[in-house]
Amino acid sequence: MPNEAARHALVTGSSSGIGEAIAQRLLAGGWRVTGFDVAAPRIEHAAFTAVRVDLADGAAAEAAARALGPAHALVHAAGVLRVGALGASPAADAELMWRLHVASVSRLAEVIVPAMAEAGHGRVVLIGSRVAQGKAGRAQYAASKAALVALARSWAAEVVTRGVTFNVVSPAATQTAMLDDPARAAAAPVLPPIGRLIRPDEIAALVDFLLSPGAAAITGQDIAICGGASLPR
Fold it and tell me: CA-based angle 38:41:45, to the nearest 5?
C-alpha cells in the first residue's frame, strides 16, 4: 500500500449517512478523499474533494471516474431504498436501485480497479445490506444488494493475486436519513436484538479496517454488521 500521505480513496454517497461517516473516518485517518454524490457536500476538510455527479447515470459515473486519477481505495456507499409488494412495485424504482447500486459501481470499477491491479495494491468495499437475504416488500432492493456480493466475489477472484481486495459490508437497519424517506413510510425498520439501530460510525470503523494493510488477507467476503439479527433464535 502507498504511504499514509499518498492514500487516496473514492467514496460514493459521501454527502450523508453511511458514506459521509466513512469519508469522515478516512479523513481523520489521514486519507485524501474524493466524494461522488448527486447532493451537495456537507464535509469541509482540506483533504476532501466533492464531485457532484448523478451515479444513476452510467455515462456520468464513468466520466467522473476517468477524471479522478489514481485511487487506492473505492468505497461504494451510495444507495436508495424503494419498497413495494409484488404487483405493486413500480418498474422505475427497480431500475433506479439497479443503476445506483450495481451499474454505477460496475462503471467505476472498470475504470479504477485495473490501475490498482497494475500497481499491485488496492481496496474495494461495497456497502450491501442484510436485506439481500430476502425480505417481503423489498425484492428489488434485495436483488440489487445481493448482486453486489456476486460482483465482489467474482472480481475478487480475478485480482486476488494482484494485491487488490473486494469485500462487502452488509449492515442491518442503520440510523440514517434513509429511514425518514417518505417512500418507506409504511415499512418501519426492525430493531436488531441489540435493541437499537446500527450506527454509521460502526460501519465506517469496519470499512476503515478493510482498507488497511492488516486486512490484506480478507477478500471476497460479505461481512454482516447485524446487531445479532443473524443469530439463531
Answer: 145
